[in-house]
Structures are given as C-alpha cells and as structure tokens.
Recover the amino acids of this structure.
C-alpha cells in the first residue's frame, strides 16, 4: 500500500456513516417526492388549460356562429396527495383498476398509484382497507371517488388498499367507456392498424397532417403504452394522458375523448396533442445538474452567462427569434422551467429541450433548444435556439 | 396475487437497503476526500442515494450500480462547484480567486486533505477514485465520463503535485 493511500485511509476514517443515514435518506426522498407532486399538479393544470382549448375546438357548435369566446377552465383545488394507494380490481370488468388509477392521477390525488392484479374474488361493493391512522384519508377518497364503499381495517399503515367492486364501473360508466376507447385506440396503434376507426374527423385530420408531430403509427407500432391519467372536462368528454414507450422514441400524448353522437354510445378520439417525449437513460443524469444550474442561474439573474459558450452567448445577445436569457426565464410570471426533452447526439454533444411555463390561461409555453457540449472537464451551452427540438 | 406483489416489493426494498449498507460509508468517504468537507460529503451522499433510490427499479438491474451511484454523486458535486464559483466570483466582484500557494502548504505537517484541496477538482476525483477507492483507470473513466487515457493523465499530474506537497514520501 502506498503512503498516499495510507494517509488517505487515515483521513477517511475520520468520517463514519450516521446509523440513521438510511432513514434520513428515505425522509429526503419523500420530501423530494412531495415537492415534485406539487410541481406536477401545477403542470397538470397548465396542460389542462391548453388541452381544454382543444376540447373546446372539438365541441365548438358552429364555426359560422361567430368567434369563439373564452373557455372556462376547471376550478383548481389544492392537490390532496395520498401516498401509498394500491388498487386491486375486485370487479369482473377488465381495465377497471387501471381506469381508477388514471382517474385518481388525473385528479392529482395519487401520482404514483400502484395497480395490482385482479382480486381472487369479485364483490359488488368497493372496499377500502386502511390502518386506523389513515382513516381520514380513506374517507376522503371514498367520498370523492368511491361513494358507498366500505371501510375495513388494515395492518399496514403505509398503504391504503382499494378493492374495486362492480359498483365502481357502474357509477362511472361514461368515463370508463371513454377510458376504454383510449385503450383500444392505443392498442390498435401499437399493433399497427385499425386506429383510424376510432378517430373523429377533426382528430383524423390532425393525425393525417401530422400536426405538432402527431403520427398514428410511426412512434407507437411495436411499443407499449400506459394511460397515466384521465380527467373530466365540461361537455361530457375527458382528457387522457398517454405515455408511449415506442421502439424508436418515447413520447406522450394528450387525447380528448368523447361521444360526438351520443345516441350511438361509441366514444371517439376528438383531439390529440403530442406532449414532451419522456426522458430515459443515464446520460441525461450527467447533463441534468448542469442544465438545472443554468436555469436556476437565469431564474436568479445571477451568473447565467458563465454557462455559455461563444455561440450561445451571441445568440442570446442578439435575441434571435425572441431568444432571451432573462426575459421569460425569470420574473413573477414564470411558473416553472422544465427539461422535457433530451437527445444524446454524441458522447460530447447533448440536445436538451426546455419548456418555460408562464402563468396565465392564454399564455403559451416558451421553448428553447440547448446544445450542450462536454469538453472533458465541464459542460457548456454551445448554442441555443428559441423553439422546441425537432 | 397481492401477496406476491408485496413479496416482490419487499425483495426490491431489501436489495436497495443492502446496497445502501454496502456503499454508503464508502461513498461518504470518497466525497469527504474529494470535497474536504464532511457536511457537504454527507449532503452529496444523501442526494446521490435519493436519486438512485428513485430509479432503483432500473439502476438495481445495472451491471455496476455502484458506478452509477458515484457518477451521480460526482456530477452533483461538479454542479455545486460551478455554482459556488459563480457565487464567489460575484462576491469578489469578479476578481479571480487566487489558487492556494503550493509553497505555503508544503511542509511536513500538511494533511493529505489540505494537499488534495490544492488539486483541480478533476485531478482530485481521479486520485481518490483510483488511489483510495481502488478503481481501475477504465472504471474511474466510466464514473468521470472520461477515457482511461484521460484519467491516467489526471492521475499522473495529481501524483506529481502530491509528491511535491507531501515531500519525503518517496512512495507517493
């Protein structure tokens, strides 16, 4: 062993792990999760605002009747986050538990609900199993989502188990049919044919014209999907968030689903919107702290220029296409700045899409595309453009 | 079926706890040697484990989850260093921070910690990962996002600097 190693050993032995380190870490993870949930709730509301516009467009009564008026958004209520919710399907209807999970996520109650396989026996009435310390939470979700459900005791305080009965689907029949329409639509896209039959005329046109990058099959065929959330909008339709893990890339879409001809009882996809691709992969973890630092520096109006290479500095200084280092990236109207797209172009080049969510129902999000370089020592923003990555 | 799900989750949790027990103190010490600050080391180690915990379903299946852990921790440290540099530059009205004077530190009483503190961050990380943690050049390169050759260069420079600082240690 070298002398250097011996000295380092001596130095390092001064530091010992706190026996409570694991608990402290888990506590920190929980705090982070809660913070993220609140942020997710805010973004969900922002997305809902945009999606409501689409819903309104789909339902507009008559284009000749005059200009469209403002769309009333949902009244936001504080998210009532209930951790550790587990849903099991005790009804005989396939997809009921997934629907319940998406419904709860859509209402910002449980962003990470766990769905377990169907219960061994089927019941007529939904039951909610909870530890006595969590009875208030269980009662709250019963009143809001599972009226008439029976409360039963549970030993585990960390989870609340909801076993769905036949009453759940009956009480939510219309929305459940809409959810299943989305599932069927997505299954056909994954299989590579037949999805057109479930599109309204407007939605079919949007897919045909590849509006905003929409495509029926190119990024879905052969992949997987989850309907992660669904929520009601005025007029009887619903908006579903779908995560697509495709063979070539990952994407999410927001689908408006409703029944354009109520008499036929067959819901259709009324409108669609491509959302940000989902970021996966360890390479992103390398870049993320740098980009977050850059966004934070801009938000604080302090030191953002130190992140920039020459080209990026020139682009921001010239305000190319409205690019602004501090304008929309700071100030009281900025709700959030999110990294929503990542592409590893090469080991030393990364492209990151950033979305700035600005307060106000009619204010569109601002996008930037950042080209990040790694010189073997530090990251630097090589170039920046206003707009979302292609 | 629900029982099976619970069993899988319990196994999953146990695997993470085993990983935590095996790696936490080592990571803490690596970060202490790299930062020279025990509180910062603890904060970084906790943050790194939180990130690994959040991704454990994926990271736990990696060939080398510890490598991933170290990379996350050292990247977070670099990010903090950058922020600190920005703050320091601002506090000093953009006057450059003078580097520590090697002559001043070069006495027999100098601690290895002070000697390490005189090295650039990249060299310090290389020397801690290889000399103390015992990683190979390739493994350290994977953690640092560098080629093995670049790691060797940093290590060589670090050793030379440390040899001068910790004088009298022919074996350094």
């Amino acid at each position: 062993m070298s002398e250097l190693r011996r000295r380092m050993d001596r130095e390092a032995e001064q530091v010992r792990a706190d026996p409570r380190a694991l608990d402290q870490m888990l506590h920190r993870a929980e705090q982070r999760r809660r913070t993220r949930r609140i942020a997710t709730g805010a973004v969900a509301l922002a997305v809902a605002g945009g999606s409501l516009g689409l819903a309104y467009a789909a339902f507009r009564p008559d284009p000749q009747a005059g200009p469209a008026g403002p769309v009333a958004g949902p009244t936001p209520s504080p998210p009532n986050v209930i951790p550790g919710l587990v849903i099991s399907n005790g009804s005989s209807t396939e997809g009921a538990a997934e629907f319940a999970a998406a419904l709860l996520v859509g209402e910002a109650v449980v962003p990470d609900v766990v769905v377990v396989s169907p219960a061994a026996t089927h019941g007529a009435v939904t039951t909610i199993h909870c530890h006595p310390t969590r009875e208030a939470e269980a009662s709250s979700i019963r009143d809001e989502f599972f009226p008439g459900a029976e409360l039963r005791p549970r030993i585990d305080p960390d989870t609340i188990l909801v076993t769905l009965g036949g009453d759940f689907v009956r009480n939510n029949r219309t929305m459940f049919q809409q959810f299943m329409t989305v599932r069927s639509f997505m299954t056909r896209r994954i299989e590579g044919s037949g999805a057109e039959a479930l599109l309204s005329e407007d939605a079919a046109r949007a897919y045909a014209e590849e509006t905003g990058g929409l495509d029926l099959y190119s990024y879905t065929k052969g992949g997987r999907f989850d309907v992660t959330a669904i929520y009601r909008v005025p007029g009887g339709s619903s908006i579903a968030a779908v995560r697509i893990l495709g063979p070539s890339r990952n994407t999410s879409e927001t689908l408006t689903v409703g029944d354009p001809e109520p008499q036929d009882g067959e819901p259709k996809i009324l409108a669609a919107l491509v959302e940000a691709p989902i970021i996966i992969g360890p390479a992103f973890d390398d870049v993320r702290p740098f980009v977050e630092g850059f966004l934070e520096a801009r938000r604080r109006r302090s030191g953002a220029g130190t992140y920039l290479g020459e080209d990026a500095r020139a682009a921001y200084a010239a305000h190319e296409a409205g690019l602004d280092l501090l304008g929309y990236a700071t100030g009281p109207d900025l709700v959030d700045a999110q990294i929503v797209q990542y592409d590893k172009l090469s080991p030393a080049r990364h492209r990151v899409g950033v979305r700035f969510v600005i307060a106000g129902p009619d204010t569109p999000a601002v996008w930037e595309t950042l080209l990040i370089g790694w010189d073997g020592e530090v990251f630097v923003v090589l170039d920046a453009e206003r707009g979302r990555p292609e | 079926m629900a029982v099976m799900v619970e069993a899988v989750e319990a196994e999953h949790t146990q695997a993470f706890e085993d990983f935590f027990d095996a790696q936490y103190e080592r990571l803490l010490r690596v970060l202490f040697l790299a930062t020279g600050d025990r509180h910062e080391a603890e904060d970084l180690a906790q943050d790194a484990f939180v990130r690994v915990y959040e991704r454990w379903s994926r990271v736990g299946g990696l060939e080398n989850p510890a490598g991933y852990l170290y990379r996350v921790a050292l990247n977070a440290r670099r990010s903090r260093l950058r922020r600190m540099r920005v703050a320091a530059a601002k506090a000093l009205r953009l006057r450059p921070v003078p580097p520590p004077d090697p002559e001043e530190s070069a006495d027999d009483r100098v601690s290895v910690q002070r000697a390490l503190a005189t090295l650039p961050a990249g060299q310090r990380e290389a020397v801690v990962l290889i000399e103390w943690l015992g990683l190979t050049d390739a493994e350290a390169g994977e953690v640092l996002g560098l080629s093995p050759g670049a790691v060797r260069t940093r290590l060589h420079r670090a050793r030379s600097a440390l040899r001068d600082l910790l004088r009298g240690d022919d074996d350094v």
Notes: Confidence is low (pLDDT under 50) at residues 92-109 of chain B. Chain B touches chain A through 55 residues (CB under 8 Å). The first helix of chain B runs from residue 2 to 35.
